[in-house]
Each structure stands twice: as structure tokens, then as C-alpha cells.
Prior knowledge:
By secondary structure, this protein is mainly alpha-helical. It contains 4 helices and 2 strands; from the N terminus they run H-H-H-E-E-H. It has a two-stranded antiparallel sheet with strand order 1-2. Strand 1 and strand 2 form a beta hairpin. The mean pLDDT is 78.
Amino acid sequence: DPRRLNVALTRARCGLIVLGNPRVLSRSPLWNNLLVHMREQGCLVEGPLHALKQCTVALAPSRRYVPQQRLVAANPADLAASAPPLPGAIAHGDL
């Protein structure tokens, strides 16, 4: 969730350590952009704590992050009513 990532990044007071597999994280456009930025700043490192070195993992070029739209309905029945029927489903009037 981009909002949670935003909170985590902006609440850091003295520093921030992100542990994770950059190959997996970079599959998400949001995380990929953060990793590309961290690499550009010389902050993306790998290895044991006593011998950290610049990360050599190939990352995709930075790309524009477009958040997914969320469907919000006051009543869950509103979503069900507007959803297309499933293939092979029997409509209520067909019973």
C-alpha cells in the first residue's frame, strides 16, 4: 500500500534501513522507483554488515507509478449488482 510506505519513509527521524530482496521488490513500480533512487544516492548496498558494498542487482529503469483505483461502495450489494454475471451463472429470475 503506497500510503503505508509513505508513512514508513516519512516518519524516520535519524535513518532508515530497508531489508529485502531487491529482485522481488523491484517487480512493484513503487518499490522499483524507490530502489532506483536509493541506488542513485549511493544508498543501495548488499552483503554482510561488516563488508557492505554497492548493490549490483539489475533494476528496471524508473517508471511512473500509477496507483490502482479502489472501488468503494456504501453498500456491498451495490458492487454485486453492478458486477457482470459469471459465465454459467444462473440469474435469480431464471430459477
